Amino acid sequence: MANRHTITLKPLNISIEVTHGTSLQDVLFPHGVEFPCGGRQRCTGCRVKVLDGPFPVTPEQEALLSKKELDNGWRLACSGIVTGDIEIELAQWEASVLTDNSSFAFKPKEGFGVAVDIGTTTIVGQLLNLSNGNVLAVKTALNNQAQYGADIMERINYAISTDAKVDLGIILRSQIETLLIEMVDAAGIPRDDIRTVLLVGNTVMQHFFCGFDIIPLSRVPFEPEAESYRTAKRTPAELGWKFNDSTSVVFLPSLGGFVGSDILAGIFATEIYKRNKYSCMIDLGTNGEIVIGNKERMLCASTAAGPAFEGARISMGMRASTGAISAVQQTNGMYTCSVIGGGEPRGICGSGLVDAVSVGLRQRRILSSGRFSDTAKNWKLVSPVILTQSDIRELQLAKGAIAAGITILLKRMNSSIENIANVYMAGAFGNYINRDSARDIGLLPFPTRRISPRGNTALLGAKRALFLDDIEELQHIQHRTEHISLNSHPEFMDIFAQKMTFPEF
């Protein structure tokens, strides 16, 4: 039929039939194409190669892609509208999503529960038998909102824009319902037996899921709705889910600003709040969260680290998926690159970026100012992946923000680096980052022996919370944690500027 066209994806050999006028952005996101700027034609993260079929060149593409790239068939997927049969080349990919296999003490309960960690990039859920703690099903997915922006501010800007075509809250709730159904079906249990669905996530994900007003998070002082600080309870009927209303749906409260319930769950999981000595928990992502404290007092803060740690806004950046350079090692003055999947590299992810800059500093390719030591405009790590001057600047902005946050919290605590007994790295990036490289670039100023990856602490904390008779213990953590707003801190910009430079080698 004239109003139906076929999209063929190579080398996947997948054919998709769509209606005339369909946006390629909606079709290609599930197949691994990233849209870091949310489809606003501001970056080249969604590049695809057109092998056959109509895909005209637009002025926006001419501004971002070279003539050689355009002549070779490269296009920006976000600007593509299907007007005929088209064949597109995609690199095969596979992204790992961090789950949790930790064991913990619990008080048995009846029925089944589901813990869900809603991240900006990924979503992971686990279904548990509450009588014995066994995990019966696990489901992971890339957050479907990501096609409308790689980071939370892009999503907020999209949501409040008059041009927004979809409701990001509906997208999120629908995706989580789908994951729940998949887990229940995989476990072979009736939906009515699900006693509790407990969710955690950053403040923005909480607002989208619960239907809170997102506008306050779009402007100074970035203070969320008052409801954000209370446990949100919803019925399946209110969410439009096909589950019995005897199922309790609970979203844990935020701690302040952009510090969400994922961090509350992380504190619960690491038990920082029970320790005599000071500990630090850091979750590195597009929004970096930091907690420092002990059983007497805890401080938390968030800082807009930018998406560099997740590969976005980097010239050849990508998620930690097949084809990404994930590590760079120096040996006898030379360096080697490790590629996820072992094949040809097609980009670099956050951990590889940190390693590369560390090696560059040690080899004097990169100065402490962040400039290349010679007149080169880029550094070819391994063909075709290059590191540009702007890539290094993006990392400096990200690491400077985190380092400044750590400095301010320590100062507010009247403490110092030496007094921090343990540093817990939460989340996927923290799980894979090379601690020595992070110290080399000045991101983590702590002795490496004190730094340990703790995996998905948000999911672990959510699972533990399923077994609580009430959330009094979590409220106790919340009430003893003081949020420090870095964006309004009088010393932040000065400290941030100081921390942007790299250590001397």
What percent strand? Answer: 15-25%
Straight-line distance between termini: 65 Å
Average pLDDT across residues?
A: 90
**Poorly predicted runs of 5 or more residues:** none
Fourth-level CATH superfamily of the domain at 112-270:
Domain of unknown function (DUF4445)
Alpha carbon gyration radius: 23 Å
The CATH C-level name of the domain at 112-270 is: Alpha Beta
What name does CATH use for the topology of the domain at 112-270?
Nucleotidyltransferase, domain 5
User: Structural class, please?
Assistant: alpha/beta
- Tell me the number of helical segments per DSSP (H or I, 4 or more residues long): 15
Instruction: Give the overall shape.
Output: globular
Major sheet: order of its strands?
8-7-6-9-11-10
Quaternary:
single chain
Structural topology:
Blueprint: E1 4-10, E2 14-19, H1 24-28, E3 47-52, H2 59-64, H3 67-71, E4 74-76, E5 86-89, E6 112-118, E7 122-129, E8 135-142, H4 152-160, H5 168-187, E9 194-201, H6 203-210, E10 232-234, H7 236-239, E11 248-251, H8 261-270, E12 278-283, E13 288-293, E14 298-303, E15 324-331, E16 334-339, E17 347-348, H9 350-362, E18 378-382, E19 385-388, H10 389-412, E20 420-426, H11 427-432, H12 435-440, E21 451-455, H13 457-465, H14 472-479, E22 481-483, H15 492-499
Parallel strand pairs: 1-5, 6-9, 9-11, 12-20, 14-22, 15-17, 20-21
Antiparallel strand pairs: 1-2, 3-4, 3-5, 6-7, 7-8, 10-11, 12-13, 13-14, 15-16, 18-19
Helix pairs in contact: 5-6, 8-13, 10-15
